[in-house]
Amino acid sequence: MTIHKSSAQDKHSASTSNMGTRNTQKGKSGRWLWFWVGMSGVAMVSATAGALLAVSLTSTPLMQANLSPDEAAVFESDRIAGGGLRFSELTRPVNILVMGMSVLPPDSRQVSVDTKELGYLPQVNAFDGLADVMLLIRFEPQQKKIVMLSIPRDTRTTVEGYGKRKINSANLVGGPALTATTVSNLLDDVAIDRYIRINVLGVGKLIDALGGVTVYVPKDMKYQDDSQHLYINLKKGKQHLDGDKALQLLRFRHDNKGDIGRIQRQQMVMRALIDQSLNPATLGRLPHILNVVQSHLDTNLTLEELLALASFGVRTNRSNMEMLMLPGRFSQKSEFNASYWIPNKDRISNLMVRNFGLESDAPLEISDPSSLRIAIQDSTNSSRAELRPLIRGLQRAGYSNIHISSPWSIPLQETHIVAQKGDGDSAELIRNALGFGEVRVESTGTLSSDISIQLGQDWLKNKDLLDEK
User: For residue 367, which of 105, 139, 179, 449 sits 20 to 30 Å off, Cα-Cα?
Assistant: First the structure.
């Protein structure tokens, strides 16, 4: 029997055939797209490696400190990157101690005689002064995340051989090895694999080499110190900062939060730099960037290891980048002759287990919602009465320790649910209860809170829905 197709059947058959062809082509083109993306990434890494091979990848050409064998032994010596074709891959968790140096002539042994005739104390290109900024950064390849712990420069701790001091003095009296030992002792004997020291002159050049940074300056900042030739003059608002202006924002600490407020602004700038600059194109410019800052940099990382760290950073999802601050409190005026940040040992232990892979005999406690201290920081100019639906919604979810804090000075489109103490799981539960917002593990919120809810414009669209729940 002969079967005759109608024109409609013919059209449907042809359409189905064409659709199959298009889907096949689409699938092939998709596969080719990902193939070329992958090949481009390989080419980028290969080109970068080729440029870096001008200097031996396994040497430490950026190391300017002369560590004794005992000092070198403070740092872990195991490989952190793969061999052969895996040279740019991290093979294990790595802890890097980063120090930002602010070195004045009286603290340095590398001072030119020209500085004596300037009439002020200039920043010098040296590494033997106080550590103005201190970070312990953990690169975790299995969990595909990066954790950055800021350690306030005024942290009161024991420096071996020198007693109780501010932690920023450890570099002045004992260099990177004594600083690493001091940090490790403070943080429950966490291992430190490598160190990086970059002086303040290099930070400005690094930011310029990355093309500057666009941030929202949270308030007018004005400060003048003629003795150091330090002049800070920034206006509130969103703006693109070059290296010099960014340094002004990073160095300002003359408000009621002192160094802690400065750490919060540093985290803000770091996140902006990560969002704007951490991409494959930057990886390809790594040789140029290193050439710009190399005289201002001291590290026991090899170029191979630097490439592996940069490559891991490029591939890490921004939501898996956490920024924490050493738990503690301001000292009271009656406690000491100087002002200190007093570390909280119990909370440090919990943070190191949760975020830095240290082991503990006791299981991590799940935070009770009723015990969490929640601060609400509004950026939308809502009145206290308009915030009541939010408070009621949180109370229905079991959160009772809630207070309205000072307004958030940076306009937000999306609400930030900030895990101020590093408890991202609790912040995620709050986000699920509210139904909006972005979880951020960082320390930019209210210091006394566990979770800070920084309300953005999305809150205005959702507040009526909260009352209906």
Answer: 139
What's the rounded Cα separation, in Å, for the pair 86 and 82? 5
CB-CB neighbours of 107 under 10 Å: 18
| Contact partners, residue 365, CB within 8 Å, separation at least 6 | 350
Q: At what angle do helices 388-396 and 457-468 cross, to 10 degrees?
A: 60
Residue that has been written with the tokens 């960014």 in this structure: 246
Contact present, 434 and 404 (Cβ < 8 Å): no
Q: Is 455 helix (H, G, I), strand (E, B) or coil?
A: strand
pLDDT at site 330: 94
Is 105:111 a contact under the CB 8 Å cutoff?
Answer: yes
In 10 A of CB 29, how many CB atoms? 10
- Residue 75 neighbours by CB distance under 10 Å: 18
The type of residue at 338 is A
Please state, as a whole number, how many other Cβ atoms lie within 10 Å of the Cβ of residue 427: 27
Identity of the amino acid at 214: T
User: What residues form DSSP beta bridges with 375?
Assistant: 403, 452
Q: Which residues of the chain have pLDDT under 70?
A: 1-58, 85, 362-365, 467-469
- Could you tell me if 215 and 249 are in contact, meaning their C-beta atoms sit under 8 angstroms apart? yes
Distance CA 386, CA 62 (A): 56
